[in-house]
Design brief:
Layout lengths: L19 H17 L4 E3 H8 L2 H5 L4 H13 L3 E6 L2 E6 L1 H10 L21 H17 L4 E2 L1 H5 L3 H8 L3 H13 L3 E4 L6 E4 L1 H9 L12 H19 L11 H15 L7 E2 H12 L1 H4 L1 H14 L2 E5 L8 H5 L2 E2 L4 E7 L7
Helix pairs in contact: 1-4, 1-5, 6-10, 10-11, 12-13, 12-15
């Protein structure tokens, strides 16, 4: 799109540029709204109510004041503005996602919303894991292993609320994160969004566990489906008896594979997709070496010991569920690319 065709970032009347002291908080607030949005994309119509909220006011924003901030973010490459009918839609870029992580502490001064629709963080790592298992179980119980937010939230509602601290907003957000990780398929939009269990989600269920001190009534069909999920997990460990351990120097093997892929396919950007590295390691050394517990640890070692960078993906729609699953799951993000730290990518 040429400069002449580039849509105007704002649809509200122009306002004076925000004070420099408040710039970071305002930018962080807007980038965070995009980061947590479905598909990391919001139209101006979707954005304005969030800017009018109490948290938006605390960040020093409203629809009018947001216009110069949005323009500044677009100019710096933190978001992309595209035409959406008569309005404008904003999408978070990879540069914006990376910048958000560096300025996220500026959001700490904003009071959390007291609305019943606020996102409730897990009380512990154990609760976070059990939330994943519980939400996948809700989909497994549904007819055809597919359900909407509303239908799923009606199953074991008191159990999810009392034991796991889940409300409708939190459950909906987590289902979208599970879809980004490849554990669920997500089709449709709004209230008609349908979530379906993937094979990866089935395997995760087979590896999960229930709260030992809670009673949970399940149908016979659901129990049979859980047993099938457990059998699928078992097949992973018996599919190739020749594999017993990872290569001695997986870190060096990874670096060699990175260098080859970068030279042959990604010389311009320098960003090599982690899912392609995993596929290459799987082809050379077998499934054990490509497992998340083995492969992910080796990638992290490259980051710590050999000056590599792990870059998150900003737009999950640009990757398939399987590519997301074969990447590395970070905290609230999917680590999708590996890059040599001493080089600057040309995008």
């Amino acid at each position: 799109m040429s400069d002449a065709e580039q849509p105007s970032v704002g649809t509200e009347q122009s306002a004076p540029a925000p004070a420099a002291a408040d710039d970071t908080k305002r930018v962080a607030f807007i980038l965070d709204l995009l980061h947590t949005a479905n598909g990391q994309r919001l139209t101006r119509g979707d954005l304005n109510p969030k800017l009018k909220s109490k948290r938006g006011a605390e960040a020093g924003l409203n629809p009018e004041l947001a216009t110069p901030v949005l323009q500044a973010c677009a100019d710096k490459g933190y978001l992309q503005a595209t035409k959406a009918g008569r309005s404008v839609a904003y999408s978070l870029t990879e540069a914006g996602a990376a910048h958000l992580e560096t300025i996220r502490p500026s959001l700490a001064s904003l009071k959390p919303s007291r609305s019943a629709g606020r996102i409730v963080p897990p009380a512990s790592e154990e609760v976070r894991k059990r939330r994943v298992h519980f939400l996948l179980l809700q989909v497994l119980e549904a007819p055809g292993h597919s359900t909407t937010d509303t239908e799923a939230n009606g199953r074991h509602k008191s159990f999810g609320t009392q034991s796991l601290g889940l409300n409708a907003a939190t459950s909906g957000q987590l289902r979208r994160e599970l879809a980004a990780q490849g554990l669920l398929d997500m089709t449709g939009t709004g209230r008609s969004t349908l979530f379906s269990l993937t094979r990866a989600g089935q395997l995760r269920l087979g590896n999960g566990e229930f709260l030992p001190d809670r009673d949970l009534t399940l149908s016979g069909k659901t129990l049979n489906d859980l047993l099938e999920a457990a059998r699928e997990v078992g097949k992973q460990f018996t599919s190739d008896t020749r594999e017993s351990h990872a290569p001695v120097d997986l870190e060096k093997a990874l670096q060699d594979a990175y260098s080859e892929l970068r030279r042959e396919r990604y010389a311009t950007s320098g960003l090599v997709p982690i899912h392609e590295l995993r596929a290459e390691i799987r082809k050379r050394f077998g499934e054990v070496s490509a497992r998340h517990d083995v492969f992910d640890a080796a990638v992290n070692s490259l980051r710590l010991n050999r000056g590599m960078r792990i870059i998150p993906i900003a737009d999950h729609a640009k990757a398939t569920p399987q590519q997301i699953q074969d990447s590395i799951q970070g905290v609230g993000e999917v680590l999708f690319y590996l890059e040599a730290a001493h080089e600057s990518a040309v995008l």
